[in-house]
Amino acid sequence: MKYYPMFDLFDDFFTGNTTSDVMKTDIVEKDGNYEMSMELPGVNKEDIQMELKDGYLKVTATHGSNTEDKDEKGRVVRKERVSGSYSRSFYVGEGIHQEDVKASFDNGELKIVVPKEAPKQIEENKFIPIE
């Protein structure tokens, strides 16, 4: 018997989507970075939020739709409103800062580039004053 959390049953029944159907992510290591490609079909760029906190990169996407069907006389026969929110978190490391993470969104795909290691601070020459 398979265990179904309550939110999965709700999603399956009302939206036809399971949690595993959304936010599918491929992660590859390339040129000292981790490149993530996340599928977010039907989501607008404005509905995506990314947060970096305590070494975790959290991606949240919200989606809403309204459907209305009318008969030949223009009377509403069916009207539905569906909304949902999905999120995923990835551990990227404690030394990574917000400005180190780059992201772009195009045609339902969110691409995120995170350095594999925290960028090393370049030590500036500091002169010692002579008294």
Write structural notes for this entry.
- This protein is mostly beta strands and 131 residues long.
- 7% of the residues lie in helices and 47% in strands.
- The protein contains one helix and seven strands, in the order αβββββββ.
- It has a four-stranded antiparallel beta sheet with strand order 1-2-7-6, with no helix packed on it. Strands 3-4-5 form a three-stranded antiparallel beta sheet, with no helix packed on it.
- Strand 3 (48-53) and strand 4 form a beta hairpin.
- It starts with 5 loop residues before the first helix and ends in a 16-residue tail after the last strand.
Topology, pairings included?
Blueprint: H1 6-14, E1 25-30, E2 33-39, E3 48-53, E4 56-70, E5 76-91, E6 102-106, E7 109-115
Antiparallel strand pairs: 1-2, 2-7, 3-4, 4-5, 6-7
- What is the CA-CA span between the terminal residues? 79 Å
Average pLDDT confidence is 80
User: What level of helicity do the residues show?
Assistant: under 10%
The rounded Rg comes to 22 Å
Strand content: over 45%
Number of strands: 7
Low-pLDDT sequence parts: 1-13
Instruction: Label the overall shape.
Output: elongated
The H-and-E topology, N to C, reads as HEEEEEEE
Structural class category: mainly beta
Q: What composes the largest sheet?
A: 4 strands, antiparallel
- The number of helical elements comes to 1
Instruction: Record the strand order, biggest sheet.
Output: 1-2-7-6
